[in-house]
Amino acid sequence: MSESSPFWTAMFYLGVVLIVVIAVYPFYYAIVTSFETGTALFTPSLWPENFSWTNYVAVFTGRNFLRSVANSVLVAGVTVVASLFFAVTASYALARVRFRGRGPLLMMILGVSMFPQIAVLSGLYELVNWLGIYNTPVALMLSYTIFTLPFTVWVLTTFMRDLPVEIEEAAIVDGASPWVIITQVFLPLLWPALVTTGLLAFIGAWNEFLFALTFTVSETQRTVPVAIALLSGASQQEIPWGPIMAASVVVTVPLIVLVLIFQRKIVAGLTAGGVKG
After folding, report:
1. CA-CA to 174 of 20 to 30 Å: which in 74, 88, 116, 168?
2. pLDDT per position as a tens digit, 209-219
């Protein structure tokens, strides 16, 4: 039977539909549950039985939730800016400047990303205390940037290696300095890779939980994941699942919107360097 036959075409689309359902249904169920109240929360259904905005009202009127959202936006935004700034300059040196040990250095940078967060948590905790930034957004910005840099440096280095050498040589002939080459020549060409790494860095910082829980203690300094995790009732039997679902939907929708807006740039950035012509 030919691979291009209607049977295999139907099987292909069936597999695509199955993957989409498996990936999307948990989030769809969270949306449905966020509009339920009472015992309907624990009754699986494809549509809310008693459509209500009660859970969303409880979330937005709750203590410090909006402050936690603002903290997450601030921390994730600064993390993206810092990561891209250091990654662009480092990737230029690793991709365009020849020096001894360049290969091992790049592998070392990639190797740093292999360490799990829990393995370096105690060391980072001591560093944060020594710097006097415990229970401040700066502690999260520092720790997130450290863990984001290896990935951003690796992606941008791979992308920058594929840029034509003639462009750089022409800029050098015109008297451009390395900083001018980076900012005015390479940055416009690095747009797909910058969008990819920036968005993934933003998502990582937005969703991070362990460092946010460890390095912040006051409600006014918490980020959204910690704020959602610490939502609780008077007892274990009174956990507010409705508001938790509503809060989860609120903090997930912006990420989905960003991915949909920049999806073409994301694909272009992730596939950069994958095909050699």
Report:
1. 88
2. 999 999 998 88
